[in-house]
Each structure stands twice: as C-alpha cells, then as structure tokens.
Design goal:
The complex is a heterodimer of chains A (306) and B (281). Chain A has 306 residues and is mainly α. Chain A has 13 helices and no strands. Chain A has two domains: 2-77, no CATH class; 102-302, MetI-like (MetI-like fold, Orthogonal Bundle). Chain A has helices spanning 2-37, 47-51, 55-61, 66-69, 80-91, 102-133, 135-148, 157-166, 172-195, 200-208, 213-247, 257-266, 270-302. In chain A, helix 1 crosses helix 3 (55-61) and helix 6 packs antiparallel against helix 11 (213-247). The relative contact order of chain A is 0.10. Chain B is an all-alpha fold and 281 residues long. Chain B has eleven helices and no strands. The chains are: A mainly alpha (306), B mainly alpha (281). At the A-B interface, helix 1, helix 7, helix 8, helix 11 and helix 12 of A face helix 1, helix 2, helix 5, helix 6 and helix 9 of B.
Chain lengths: 306, 281
C-alpha cells in the first residue's frame, strides 16, 4: 500500500505538471491577442498572421506571455491553480445557502442521486430475489436486463424529464427516476450472481437441515450475496450521479452541478465548468469511498473480511 | 376500458404460458431459451399498445408502439442521416481512437511496474467519473461537429479500456512466464505469444463496456451543441417540440445500434477466447 502511495503521488504530480505545460499552447492565441492590445511586441505581429500558426510554435517564440496564459479570465484550458482557487472560492468562501455555492448545487444533485440510488437498489434487490426464485421470471427478464445495458439510457433522460414535467412532477423526482434506472440494472445483475453464488454443497447442507426456501434465502443466499451487492452498489452510485447530472441538462435547470456545467458552457465561463467538473469528481469519489468503507465494516462483522 | 382488461388478460395468459414453458421438460433447449424472453417482450409491447389506447394516454406523454413504427417508416432518411452522424462518425471513430490509445498506453505502462502501480488507481478513479461533464469543454475546443463528439467518446472509452487491458496483461501465472523465458523469448515475443492472448478476456470485457459508453457519449455530447443532424440533436429538439414519437423512433435506432455493436463484439470474443471457462455452453 505504501509503495503504491508513492507511485500514485508521483504519477499525479506528473499529470499536474503536464497540465501546466499544456496550458501554455492552449491559451497562447488569446494571450497574444490581449498582449498586442496592451501594447506589447509579439512575434509575429497581427492576429491574421498568427491564426494559422501552430500554438506550440507561437508559445516558443513568445516566452513573455507564458505568465499570462496561466492567469486568463476565460481561458481555453484553465490552469490547476485557477480551478483550485475557484473551488476554494465557491465551496469555502461562500455561504452554504448562497446560489453561488458549489455546496448548495452539490446538495441538489446529491439529493436526487441518493433518492434514485435508494429506489434503484431496493427495486433491483426485489427483482433479483424474484429472478432467483422463479424460473419463469429468470428466463423472461434476465436476457432483457442484460440486453438493456447495451442501450444508451441517458439518451432517454430528456424525454423522461419533459414528460414528467408536463404531468406536474418536477424538480427532484424526475432526476431521481433517471438515477434509479441507471443504478437498477447493475444491482439486479450483481445480486442475481450473488444470490446464486452458494455452491451445491452448501445448498444441500441446508436441505439436510430441513430448511424451507425462505430460511435458505435468509440464512445462506442473502449473506453470500453481500460482497456482490457492495460491488454493484459502487457501480450503481457512480451511475446514479451521472444520471442526476444528465437529468439536469435537458430543461436547462438552474440548480445542481449539471446546471453549473450548463450555465458555464452557455456563458463561456470555462473555470466554472472545470470547477463543477472537479466537484462532480470529488462527489463521485466520496460516494464510492463511503460505500467501500461500509463494505469493509459490514464484511468484517459478517466474518468475510479480508 | 375493454382494452385495459384485454391487456391484463393478455398479461396473465402470457405469464401462464411462460411459466409452463420455463418449468416444462424442454426448458433447457435453445429454442425455449429464446422463446420465453421473446414472448415476454412481445407481451410488454402489446400491453403498451392496449393500455395507451385504452386509457387514452395523450401523445405528448407516451405514444403507442404502432405510432412509433409508423413514424420510423416515414422518417427513414432522417434516421439514417442521424445514425451516420452520431454512430459512424462520432461514436465509431472515437471508439477506434480511444481503444487503440488505451491499448498502446497499457502496453507501455506494463513495462514499468512503478508506472503501473501509480497509474492504475488514478485511471480507475477517472473511469468512475461522469465523463459526460467534459462534453461542453470538448465542444468548446473542437467545435460543434462530429470531432468533439469523437473526442468525448475517446475520453469516456480510454480509462475503462486502460484499466481492463492492464489487468489482463497481469493475468499470466509465474510458471507460464518462466516457461517462455526458458525458451529464450524476447519481451516482445513473450508479449505477442503469451501475455496478449492471455489478456484477451479482459480486453474484450473492456471492449464491450466501451461499446456502450461510446454510444452514450456520442449522444449525450450532442445535447451540448451539434449541427442540425445527429441522434442527440434529434432527441433534444423533438423533446422540445413534444414530438415524442420521433424521440422514441431515435431511441429504437439507438437501441438497435447499441445491441448490434455489443453483439458483434461478443461474437468476435466467442471466437477469440474460445478457451475461456465463460465460453463453455
């Protein structure tokens, strides 16, 4: 673990350094235009002459503007410190109830995610139990469950939002339904695998103890499925978050992390887009980490800990 | 009202038929295994039609399947143009670039243990993120046309594929690697003859996951800006016009394209990884 920690740190630092280096050619065109307007001498003169030149060539010929490329207002590629500053500003320096606070927007998205995740998990576990215990359900539903994973569900998100809006269901619930759908299938597939994981010897053992189907389910199948459930929950929670964010896009929502992405792209506020993206990333990572912690604790208490 | 009752009766009859088939003597045979989900799917379609007509559901909420099929038949040129723009130009090109780049990176990373241990956690982390959020940024960099959609697909496909190929390259046992060393194989020969074939189950797992992500990426990226053609464009504008039968027609095309793409990869996988336990019938 410690050896990996050093490797991960080195790779992350290298990626951040690469990011800084990439900022210079990405922003050099607009930096040179701005510098020329401010009266600096740039090579070559005139935006028309520079338009078709390669960005790297321009950057190498004008080292004086490198500082400028890392500090623009609306850069093509914001520098890491700009994104970090925006994150700090909107997370820590704003009141949590302010409409400019990323915590506020994050909570809007998170509430839809959690509601959808809960619905999807409960429905998924129920369907998995049905599939394992009824052969008709197994043969008719499972192929469709697997096939539906190849269908781009996110493409239906706009329609679901608009249709539900037109029947008066707005705000949290439509997004939660998309999240529920996205987390539903990983949970079904994982739970079915888990509920079927006890081997023949264990199932026979319970038969010799005269266990009914319900008792076999409660005492053998359900505990055996817990590792598989947690693996699916990790996938499901990430999928729910994506669903909630995509659910905020179609009707031009004004609240939520997806809405921040959208308004940033409408108004050309690139730093806002990047900070919303990083907030989403941090949220996704935190949710998966919380489930991983719950998994370790639960498995340890059940005696399946590693 | 009669239509609603008919729908419920149909459901009950089809369920009884499926129960009879699934628990009967021939339930393991190939034809029954295809027939039962087919009956289930067709029953759902029939119930949809009957319930929508019986309950008089407005067109702007949920169109009946017959209307969707009629709309598809009417709009074949539009559907085809959208399909070419989104799937062929956007998703497929991004898929090819992303998968190749991930493959090459995985082989490069495999040579250095340090690099692998550092990159894998980062790549797994990025693979779990909502990459569709990068769509507005990439549209800003690459413009409205299919290139930005291909770029979104590349980013979405790269990290899951990288994680899978790297995991696959670790799949050989020590004895297998020693064996090929005793035969004086160079690193490249060992890669080509032992480690790549052994990695194929993971590679195909990555390819299958990436195929679904590619289509999702191409469609959702079009929500952020696209020329007046494309499946995502058609869906979002048809939703705005409340022409929901067109939306469903596009969804059917997307579903067919996604399933066909996935099925093709699964077919190639069955040929290439014939030796793997998961391919046993």
């Amino acid at each position: 673990m410690m050896r990996s920690a050093l490797a991960v740190a080195v790779v992350t630092l290298a990626l951040v350094a690469l990011w800084y280096v990439a900022c210079v050619p990405m922003n050099v065109h607009s930096a040179l235009t701005q510098a020329e307007r401010d009266g600096m001498v740039v090579a070559p003169e005139g935006a028309a002459a520079r338009r078709d030149m390669s960005a790297i060539g321009l950057a190498l010929r004008n080292p004086a503007v490198w500082d400028e490329t890392l500090a623009q207002d609306k850069p093509r590629l914001p520098a890491p410190h700009q994104v970090a500053a925006e994150l700090w500003d909107t997370v820590v320096m704003k009141k949590v109830t302010s409409k400019r606070s990323l915590v506020y927007h994050g909570w809007i998205t998170l509430s839809a995610t959690l509601l959808g995740f809960a619905i999807g998990t409960v429905a998924g576990v129920a369907l998995a139990v049905g599939i394992v215990h009824s052969r008709a359900m197994d043969m008719s539903v499972m192929p469709w469950a697997i096939a539906s994973q190849t269908i781009p569900i996110l493409a239906i998100a706009p329609m679901i939002i608009v249709v539900l809006n037109s029947v008066g269901v707005q705000g949290l619930v439509p997004k939660a339904i998309i999240s529920a759908y996205l987390s539903f299938f990983p949970v079904v597939v994982g739970m079915v695998k888990g509920l079927r994981s006890p081997d023949a010897m264990q199932l026979d053992q319970l038969r010799t103890w005269n266990a009914s189907r319900g008792q076999t389910f409660r005492k053998l199948r359900l505990p055996a499925s817990v590792p598989y459930l947690f693996a699916s929950l990790k996938i499901g929670v990430a999928a729910s978050l994506v669903g909630a964010i995509v659910g905020e896009l179609p009707t031009g929502a004004v609240r939520g992390l997806g809405a921040r992405l959208l308004t940033g792209s409408y108004y050309g506020q690139t730093v806002q887009i990047w900070s919303a993206l990083f907030a989403t990333a941090i949220l996704a990572a935190s949710l998966v980490a919380i489930i991983a912690l719950l998994e370790r604790g639960t498995l340890r208490r059940m005696g399946m800990g590693r | 009202m009669t239509l609603v009752v008919a729908a419920l009766v149909l459901w009950a009859l089809a369920w009884m038929l499926n129960a009879r088939l699934a628990n009967g003597p021939a339930s393991e045979s190939r034809s029954i295994r295809l027939l039962v989900p087919a009956i289930f799917g067709l029953t759902l379609l029939a119930m949809w039609e009957l319930l929508v007509r019986g309950l008089d559901v407005p067109l702007v909420i949920l169109p009946a399947p017959s209307l969707i099929v009629a709309r598809m038949a009417d709009s074949l040129p539009i559907l085809w143009a959208d399909f070419v723009q989104t799937f062929v130009k956007g998703a497929l090109s991004g898929y090819a670039i992303g998968v190749t780049a991930a493959f090459v990176t995985a082989i490069a990373v495999d040579r250095s243990d340090f690099l692998r241990r550092g990159l894998m956690p980062v790549a797994s982390f990025v693979a779990a993120l909502p990459i569709v959020g990068t769509a507005p940024i990439l549209v800003m960099w690459y413009g409205f046309d299919w290139q930005s959609k291909a770029a979104v697909v590349v980013v979405m496909v790269f990290f899951p594929m990288l994680v899978n190929v790297t995991a696959g390259l670790q799949e050989t046992t020590q004895m297998q690697r020693d064996q090929i060393r005793t035969w004086a194989a160079t690193w490249w020969q060992g890669l080509w003859k032992l480690r790549l074939p052994a990695a194929m189950p993971f590679v195909f797992n990555g390819l299958k996951i990436s195929s679904t992500l590619a289509l999702i990426g191409a469609i959702v990226a079009e929500f952020f800006g696209s020329p007046i053609v494309g499946m995502g464009f058609r869906i979002s504008t048809s939703v705005g016009q409340l022409a929901l039968d067109m939306v469903w027609a596009e969804i059917v095309v997307a579903a067919l394209a996604g399933s066909a793409f996935y099925g093709l990869i699964a077919l190639i996988e069955a040929r290439v990884t014939f030796w793997h336990p998961s391919q046993r019938r």
